Amino acid sequence: MKTETVTVDLDNRSYDIMIGPQLIARAGALIAKRLPHVRAGIVTDSNIGALHLPELEASLKAAGIASTSIIVEAGEQSKNFPTLETVVDHLLAARLERNDIVIAFGGGVVGDLAGFAAGIVRRGMGFVQIPTSLLAQVDSSVGGKTGINTAQGKNLLGVFCQPQLVLADTDILKTLPEREFRAGYAEMVKYGLINQPDFFHWLEKNRTAVFAGGKERIQAIATACRSKAAVVERDERENGERALLNLGHTFGHALETATGYNAARLVHGEGVAIGMVLAYQFSAWLKLCSAQAAGQVEAHLRAAGLPTQLEDIAGSLPDADTLMNSIAQDKKVSNGALTFILTRGIGKAFIARDVPAAQVRAFLMEKLRSPH
Amino acid sequence: MKTETVTVDLDNRSYDIMIGPQLIARAGALIAKRLPHVRAGIVTDSNIGALHLPELEASLKAAGIASTSIIVEAGEQSKNFPTLETVVDHLLAARLERNDIVIAFGGGVVGDLAGFAAGIVRRGMGFVQIPTSLLAQVDSSVGGKTGINTAQGKNLLGVFCQPQLVLADTDILKTLPEREFRAGYAEMVKYGLINQPDFFHWLEKNRTAVFAGGKERIQAIATACRSKAAVVERDERENGERALLNLGHTFGHALETATGYNAARLVHGEGVAIGMVLAYQFSAWLKLCSAQAAGQVEAHLRAAGLPTQLEDIAGSLPDADTLMNSIAQDKKVSNGALTFILTRGIGKAFIARDVPAAQVRAFLMEKLRSPH
Ligand SMILES: NC(=O)c1ccc[n+]([C@@H]2O[C@H](COP(=O)([O-])OP(=O)(O)OC[C@H]3O[C@@H](n4cnc5c(N)ncnc54)[C@H](O)[C@@H]3O)[C@@H](O)[C@H]2O)c1
Ligand SMILES: NC(=O)c1ccc[n+]([C@@H]2O[C@H](COP(=O)([O-])OP(=O)(O)OC[C@H]3O[C@@H](n4cnc5c(N)ncnc54)[C@H](O)[C@@H]3O)[C@@H](O)[C@H]2O)c1
Ligand SMILES: [Zn+2]
Ligand SMILES: [Zn+2]
Q1: A275-334, pLDDT tens digit by residue?
Q2: Which residues in chain B belong to E strands, given as ranges?
Q3: Is B149 among the residues known to form the active site?
Q4: pLDDT for A219-254, tens place per residue?
Q5: Nearest chain B Cα distance for residue A140, angstroms
Q6: Which of B44, B51, B73, B112 to mutate to test the pocket of ligand 2 (most atoms within 8 A of CB)?
Q7: CA-nearest residue of chain A to B88?
Q8: Which domains does chain B have, with CATH numbers?
């Protein structure tokens, strides 16, 4: 199977995303070719560390890249201040310098945490992403957003830190739990829903092939990366259009907060799946798009085995006011008014500024009262 | 007395440094004019908080800028992880948004800490510097370097975060302890020594007038800012020339580490004063500049009441090996080789790469054995 390369064009900070099989084995050589003489601090989590770290370490060593490994606990709770401090302390104790690299080897959690560390150690070190979850391969490893959570909410602290190379090894997805694969699939569907209706319809046809692996999977990941790269190129710092990538995320984040970031109840991509359905239903409720479009989105995500409704979440949820409160603290608030990603149909998302909080609240009240 | 304005030209991130009397009283109006509709999180320290915070708060309020104040303990030890966490938590709890501003109201410690917070909260908020120490007015508030210290050394964590406005109120220096004024003076002298011999000679003639206040002081601060701005404009991220600003700092940082950042023994600018004399003496020792130039630098700093020799530091110092070790951990190390700012005379500093550590060590051994 062929390796695909997507280039993110950001002038002198441009970088390649390589997507294909057996990239871990080639990682050392691929890095050494582009970044000669670097040493590396690998950040990974306990799951990926146990399964795949020896292969990456061997690959670096074979290419003459000295490395040190930092293993954090798997899970969202590692995106916090104490873990960040542990990571930067380790990088500094290893005497890594500005021109050396941090390698994020894991899912979005590791990518966000390691990227933040790379962005602040010595005011910015080199950075390479080796995403191992589908979500990280199609979303979090591309575009340079990094960060951690605080008591006030998700991703409230961070920096923009573009990687110098992204290696998305599609073989490594074989050990990814099915549920995590589905969660990443939700983010892939997102690009179709935002502005690529053809991709959404292609996924409707090729979903089972993408889940099965093979060339359709590589193609789908590459399409997703290309789609994200295009948005990031036009609006790196999210002053405008990049906000479209938050489709489904305002509701999704509120649900993640409501479930205490408890992965047993909800993982990020699942929150996004429900959030996207809510965004379509809210758009339909506002008479912006058809109920049929909302139904089509829900049907596709449900067919992929994703949760799509509030009652798909195990356990009880807080009331509409509590959800609203957590939405208001979300970072997509500008001078008190709510900014929402709404849609006029499949592939027709848009940024709606000044959405009245009262409308969101009324919609949520209905949803919470009579589900379906 | 006239207010001087120095512009730091960084394309769409350009900003003004205003230097003159009574700028705290005008701060609200000056900010509101440039950044309409912002709210502010003021970060200050216990000393400046007690002396000047009410005036700044009143000035903002009069201009319609809502603000919240965060007071950290005065002193270098506040540039640490726990204090950073306190500051960002407060900014988030106050629900400040991306377009709101953090105001650093204090010396270099507050500037570095608050700037780092501004750089990472919501991946970057607005930022205004109101430096209150001479050192902060001529150095740390200009150029966008921010950061905190870690167990491994000074300023090892941080981001580049350019302010949108710098207000250097020369009246506020009236309450600055004399010793801190002298420390800031050392950084001012640094610009003369790097590449502006005329400014050094001007300071030799006008030193007492600069210490007395008045128009010479404003002129000297503006010249220093202009000098730093020119370097930053050419090399914002310190890939080259900006390293010149570290003249005296490699030795200085090692001395700060050796004295445990204990301000009773040594403050930053004093470390820089001794460090600059050592840099000249080391350059003379290497036959790069004349002993006469080194003597002239020492004489001027000594006349200003600054420490200039190792034995001016109260208490005992560690041996040459320990100092070398701390120099090697300093961030101006590239692939193991030592980078030093050396000089060929007054205003003739240059970046020397690959200075053998053995030579630095031999020089330090001599200095520690037979002072003078
Ligand atoms: N920076 C961005 O632009 C961006 C975008 C989207 C999401 N995110 C962030 O990404 C995070 C979610 O990412 P995620 O879903 O990858 O979570 P994750 O990193 O927690 O990974 C999910 C789980 O899968 C495991 N795992 C990952 N790869 C594996 C593999 N190949 N084999 C076996 N197990 C594997 C992990 O150990 C973890 O238990 C969230 O914190 C979210 O905020 C960031
Ligand atoms: N970011 C940069 O580019 C840069 C450059 C140089 C130095 N620095 C940093 O700056 C720091 C040193 O700055 P500093 O010397 O201003 O230290 P500081 O901030 O600790 O201030 C020195 C002392 O003077 C007090 N003070 C300040 N202004 C006062 C006033 N107007 N009236 C009364 N008291 C006042 C402070 O409370 C403190 O006790 C160091 O941490 C150094 O690393 C940063
Ligand atoms: Zn997401
Ligand atoms: Zn300094």
Answers
A1: 999 999 999 999 999 999 999 999 999 999 999 999 999 988 888 888 888 887 764 555
A2: 4-8, 15-20, 40-45, 67-72, 101-106, 126-131, 148-150, 153-157, 165-169, 333-334, 337-343, 349-355
A3: no
A4: 999 999 999 999 999 999 888 999 999 999 999 989
A5: 15
A6: B112
A7: A157
A8: 4-176 (3.40.50.1970), 179-369 (1.20.1090.10)
